[in-house]
Design brief:
- By secondary structure, the protein is mostly beta strands.
- Helices cover 6% and strands 46% of the residues.
- A hairpin with a 2-residue loop joins strand 18 (210-214) and strand 19.
- The termini are far apart.
- 40% of the residues are buried.
- The protein binds 6-O-phosphono-beta-D-tagatofuranose (TA6).
- 6-O-phosphono-beta-D-tagatofuranose binds next to strand 20 and strand 21.
């Protein structure tokens, strides 16, 4: 293991900590290949609930859950799939480092447990976590290692940390088709998104990156075109109070902006690969003005 990646634990969960020479860090738990922390520009950029269950079984509230092979409850599998609830393994890199990043790869294959939940699928998943100065890139790779096709939906369900949800906005979805999951209405997004109460919407993915504005924070969020949807979620006060693993005011400090495949499942033929990524990048306030 390279000296900039070290084994650590967070509440007894085995984790890997990445340290970029410039000072940024990231922590990824083997449980769920779940990124728990990304510190960039001197502050934490991800929201991890202080009430998250870290027992190596439950899904962790916050960070970046990997949702696969099912988005939410759109199918017969457990909500948001099952790979966020199981331990992945550190793997030898298959992606070539680009020279200035620190990266780890985690792998998960089918086994007795997955066969019980998702019977006919033979698969190999990889999550590549790459840390650059001011940037974090998560790439999910899926491979059909069996002899029959299977399909999936899913998401990189990123919980961004915001100073205050009521001052935050997301730009870049103007003109995109939107399904408002709270009101169950379809419309076209006009202008930046702002938040007052529960917000849960699935968008047709935009062509370019999004921009999160929150106080002095400016964050660019770019998803690969292979993810057909972008999901934006904040539970608001009422739903947040019903989430046992969230503090009552937790909704004020989180905003999920997700690279997702929601509406149209991807079919992977035997031997086929799919990859999808999300790239987060700090933007100087002057650049985002
Ligand atoms: O991606 C948004 C969403 O699908 C919401 O509808 C909400 O349920 C959220 O995910 C969190 O799901 P979870 O199973 O992690 O509580």
């Amino acid at each position: 293991m390279s000296p900039v990646v070290e084994a650590t634990t967070v509440e007894n969960l085995p984790c890997l900590r990445l340290r970029h020479p410039g000072g940024d860090t990231a922590v990824v738990a083997l449980h769920g290949a779940h990124v728990l922390s990304w510190v960039a520009g001197g502050r934490e950029r991800l929201y991890l609930s202080p009430n998250a269950t870290m027992d190596g079984q439950a899904a962790i509230r916050g960070g970046v859950p990997v949702c696969f092979p099912q988005f939410n409850q759109r199918g017969p599998l457990p909500k948001h799939g099952f790979v966020r609830n199981v331990a992945w393994q550190p793997a030898e890199p298959v992606e070539t480092p680009n020279g200035d990043d620190v990266r780890v790869e985690l792998a998960l294959g089918d086994d007795e447990h997955s066969h019980a939940v998702w019977p006919h699928a033979r698969f190999a998943l990889r999550l590549v976590v790459s840390l650059t100065a001011g940037g974090l890139r998560l790439a999910l790779h899926a491979h059909n290692s069996g002899d029959s096709p299977w399909e999936f939906t899913g998401a990189l369900h990123t919980y961004l940390r915001v100073d205050g949800i009521e001052q935050a906005s997301v730009e870049g979805l103007d003109g995109c088709a939107r399904w408002d999951a709270v009101a169950d209405t379809h419309q076209v997004q006009r202008g930046p998104i702002r938040f007052q109460g529960e917000y849960d919407s699935v968008f047709a993915a935009p062509a370019g990156p999004l921009l999160l504005r929150d106080g002095t924070q400016r964050l660019s969020i770019e998803n690969s075109p292979s993810f057909a949807n972008t999901v934006v979620w904040n539970p608001g006060a009422v739903l947040c109070a019903r989430l046992a693993d969230m503090p009552a005011q937790g909704f004020r400090h989180m905003l999920c902006v997700e690279a997702a495949q929601v509406d149209a499942p991807v079919t992977l033929a035997p031997g086929a690969h799919w990859a999808g990524w999300q790239q987060l990048r700090l933007v100087a306030a002057a650049q985002a003005a």
